[in-house]
Amino acid sequence: MGDPRPLVPVIVGPTASGKTAVAVALSEFLPITVISADSRQVYKDLDIGTAKPTREERERVPHLGIDVVAPGERYSAGRYARDAVQWMGEVGADRQPLVVGGTGFYVRALADGLFREPPISRTQRDHLREWMQGKQGMGRWAARLDPGYSGGGQQRASRVVEVALLTGKSLSWWQKTAENEGIMRPWFIRLTLPRATLHTRITSRTRAMIEMGLVDEVRGLLDSGISNDAPGLDAVGYREVIRMLDGRMPADDLEEAITTATRQYAKRQKTWFRHQLIGHPVVALDATATPRTLARRIAELWTERGR
């Protein structure tokens, strides 16, 4: 008996590889609804620094999974997987769901499922989270406690530390031994770029974000009462602006700091997508082509593949 789960195209790739532009262009060839797989675009009011689709793009193509929670609220891959079931159900029969994003754990939640929550005492968890609140260097702790830790923001690192200390086994161990089935059969389209080209795009996008008002966006969030270490604000771009506003970094260094951090993040994404999509059909496309050219090729391949 065949797999009853729907076959869904998934556009992945590092930040600044042009995923959103390709998805919007694809709407010219296929009636799509985008389901975002981006762990920062789920936050309301984090617009410039997360490179959210513009209002015009969202009017052209329906998007789900964007502006889900307020900054400061924790949003896990497990919650994303549960929400995505509902979003999939909201896509009409006359439209094709298309997952788009660069957050590997969100993509895996849809494609392979997530491990079941390990047994953790609520009291112990609360005490540990209180101890970890505001502490720096969680990434180093996570790497020492979990050999499978591949990087991420403060929230991700804290989760890895929490599971390791409170269960005695690493998060990657739990994921390997207790995975569930995903909600879809993925057909991955992985956008690739030469390193130099990707770096140039990242530099240009960082400059554009600053010119669009990234600093004012962050300042407004902090002025509204959101803590500078709140979930969401640990994303690349936001944390560098916060360092500058706190006086821990000169304003003249902001653009270079964001650019460097984004390049490092993109490198981790590329590594993740090279190694974590094994076992699923993957098409790699050179993203130096125009979004419309890439979209036309994806539509052709999708039609040839069938459902």
- Choose one word for the global shape: globular
Helix content: 40-55%
Parts with pLDDT < 50 across at least 5 consecutive residues: none
Beta-strand percent range: 5-15%
User: Average pLDDT value?
Assistant: 90
Can you name the CATH architecture of the largest domain? 3-Layer(aba) Sandwich
How many H/I helical runs?
Answer: 13
What can you tell me about this protein's structure?
- It is a single chain.
- With 307 residues, the protein is α/β, with parallel strands linked by helices.
- The chain has two domains: 7-114 and 179-305, Rossmann fold; 115-178.
- It is 49% helix and 10% strand.
- It has 13 helices and six strands.
- A six-stranded parallel sheet has the order 3-2-4-1-5-6, with helices on both faces.
- Helix 6 packs across helix 7 and helix 9 (195-212) packs across helix 12 (254-275).
Question: Which descriptors apply to this entry?
Answer:
307 residues, alpha/beta, six-stranded parallel β-sheet, 13 helices, 6 strands, globular
Short summary:
With 307 residues, this protein is α/β, with parallel strands linked by helices.
List the helices and strands and how they pair.
Blueprint: E1 7-12, H1 19-26, E2 32-36, H2 55-60, E3 63-64, H3 77-90, E4 96-100, H4 104-111, H5 122-132, H6 138-145, H7 154-167, H8 171-177, E5 185-192, H9 195-212, H10 214-223, H11 238-245, H12 254-275, E6 282-286, H13 291-305
